[in-house]
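Let us practice reading a record.
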Amino acid sequence: MIFFIYGVIFYFSIIVFLKINYPELRWNWNLEDDKKLNFPKNFFWGTATASHQVEGNCTNNNWYKWENNFDDEGSPRIKDNQKSGLACDHWNKYEEDILMLKELGVSHYRLSLEWSKIEPKKNKFDEIILKHYSKVIDALLKNNITPYITLHHFTNPIWFDEIGSFEKEKNIDYFIDFCEFVFNRFSNKVSNWCTINEPEVYSVMGYFAGVFPPGKKDAQVAAEVQKNLLISHTRVYDKLKSLSNGKDSKIGIVKNVMQFDPSRRWHLLDWLACRITDIVYNKMSLSYLKYGKIKINIPFFINLDYSNKDAIGKTDFFGLNYYSHVHLKFQFDKHEFFINTYPKNDIMTDMPYTIYPEGLYRAIHRVKSIGKPIIITENGIADSKDDKRGLFIKRYIYAMNKAIQEGVDVRGYFYWSLMDNFEWAEGYDMKFGLYEVDFKTQERKLRQGSKEFINIINES
């Protein structure tokens, strides 16, 4: 009996420790909503897109193959068998879209360059495509819009996938060659560069969850891919810094941070599911940048030990993508040891997550430990009815501003996204755009909820 009592005491002592050290922050919005925002003088505002999602006619990359592929049960890979196709035709309508940036009042635009278009075959670069991107950059600069270029935003040329892509560390050389070529071409015009977008999303969704290409479900391979993406970042960073204009350029990684909170705060197995998931999704990348180490040992799941002291601090800024947190509930299933749950009183977005601005505040404070300036490189809401967008924008920007007022060095904010686009496995169903897009006519229309963003920019 005494051992049972001691066991119960020990169990609940652990739970109390976890609750105290890992609180799920919640604010009283009746008190917070009316507080004024105050931004530093040089703080900037922008919006973001990615090439495959907006340009159209990306027919030579891994996502094009994925969209035209079916799983083992004959089901399409993309919701309702949707395909990116012409997307927003941003390739031809970029001048019109730049005017939308002007209408919003933003000064920055984050875009990606489509590797598969620039280098359609190994070591073969397309001058027509390069001239097009040069025109886009010139048009942005002419309109006093500062470009932030992303070098890898989920898509690979088909030829790169056929040789194993980032599953093989030796293939990183091909990506470095591409980055060097592009940087040499545009660094006289562009001073801000993002290397890898969300290495954890690329690896987890493509190699563990299996809903992104190549559709594998192997935790060890997923971890190896993420490790190689992190190595790619630091090697690209070193290469670009060594080139002409490199020392004068700002080069950074972009990482999504998501908190994993227990569905039942009294249940130790829910906490365990959160800790394991956080190690892979967040801690792995942060440890690499802060300590130059990746060490994961989860029995029967992942065993990875990599060290590179030269990686410490190898980023000029930390690009933080943030959307929401997730509540995890443990279940006894070796294939999926948790399920997601959603609190009753939380406001759901169209994506399967809730509005949780406190999480952006938590994420900012977590990544400040890297010791680099922070830029919010993505933050936005899927809201087809446009009845939550204004609230989302107001509260998330408030959360960011609260961290700034507490002394965290946050330099800028990019809303995701400028306009509705192809939202990867969700197809066109998720409406993230400040501008609504009619994909039949390609007409763009500013959403009513987006005016909250404009108002904040004008008042800052």
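A brief commentary: The domain at 29-459 is CATH 3.20.20.80 (TIM Barrel).
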